[in-house]
Structures are given as C-alpha cells and as structure tokens.
C-alpha cells in the first residue's frame, strides 16, 4: 500500500476524504485483522484514489485531540468528480458490505484544497 505522500499516479489530489471508524470491538484482533485486510485490498484496487493513509490514534495528549476512534482513513482524489466515481466503485461497496458489521460509528469530513 502506498503511503499518504506517495501517489498512485504521481499527482497530489485536490479533494480530500477523511474517514474515522469506531469499531464495535476495538480490542478484538480478529475484527481488526478483518477490517485492515478488507480496507487495504479495497484501497489498492480503487481506480480513483490519488494518495492514501490509514492510521490509528497517535500517542499525543492535548485537550484538542480526539483519540477515541479506532482507525482513520485519509484519501485524496484529483477532484470531486473522481471522489464521486469512487463512491460507486464495486470495491468500495464490497468494503462497506464486508466491514459495516464491524463498526459502530463512522464520521466523514470531505474538503477541497484551497492551496493552488
């Protein structure tokens, strides 16, 4: 899997899709393994993702930091149209179908780059 700073097509995206997942059983090694395998398989198969990052809460401790989530996903796209196409990809839908039973909450932030 390429890191956030590596790109699939050497183009940094202008549309960012940030997703936070709270697993129902975050201490279950089996659930975490299933989630990670499905997520990585999906990310590597996506035609539209430009950059990608999957993480867990960092060991930071400041009042403004929320470390309550289990996983974060940050992906970028060339533009909103590419993100819209990603939402309809079969691999994206398969990931949701496989992993939706594992999570209790998902929170998404989408943004468009204002730095040109």
Question: How would you portray this structure in words?
Answer:
The chain is of the alpha+beta class and 116 residues long. The chain has helices at residues 29-45, 80-87, 90-99; strands spanning 15-23, 49-55, 71-77, 103-112. A four-stranded antiparallel β-sheet has the order 2-3-1-4. Helix 1 (29-45) runs antiparallel to helix 3. Mean pLDDT is 91; it is low at 1-10.
From the helix content, strand content and strand pairing, which structural class follows? alpha+beta
Number of beta-strand segments: 4
Uncertain ranges: 1-10
Shape: globular
Strand order of the largest sheet: 2-3-1-4
Q: Mean pLDDT, nearest integer?
A: 91
Q: How much helicity do the residues have?
A: 25-40%
Order of helices and strands: EHEEHHE
What are the SSEs and their pairings?
Blueprint: E1 15-23, H1 29-45, E2 49-55, E3 71-77, H2 80-87, H3 90-99, E4 103-112
Antiparallel strand pairs: 1-3, 1-4, 2-3
Concise overview:
This protein has a four-stranded antiparallel β-sheet with strand order 2-3-1-4. Helix 1 runs antiparallel to helix 3. With 116 residues, the chain is an alpha+beta fold.
Key attributes of the depicted protein:
alpha+beta, four-stranded antiparallel β-sheet, 3 helices, 4 strands, globular, disordered N terminus
């Amino acid at each position: 899997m390429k890191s956030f700073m590596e790109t699939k097509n050497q183009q940094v995206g202008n549309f960012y899709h940030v997703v936070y997942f709270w697993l129902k059983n975050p201490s279950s090694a089996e659930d975490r393994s299933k989630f990670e395998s499905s997520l990585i398989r999906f990310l590597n198969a996506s035609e539209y993702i430009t950059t990608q990052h999957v993480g867990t809460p960092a060991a930071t401790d400041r009042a403004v930091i929320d470390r309550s989530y289990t996983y974060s996903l940050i992906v970028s796209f060339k533009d909103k149209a590419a993100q819209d196409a990603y939402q309809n990809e079969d691999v994206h839908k398969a990931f949701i179908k496989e992993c939706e039973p594992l999570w209790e909450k998902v929170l998404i932030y989408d943004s468009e780059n204002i730095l040109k």
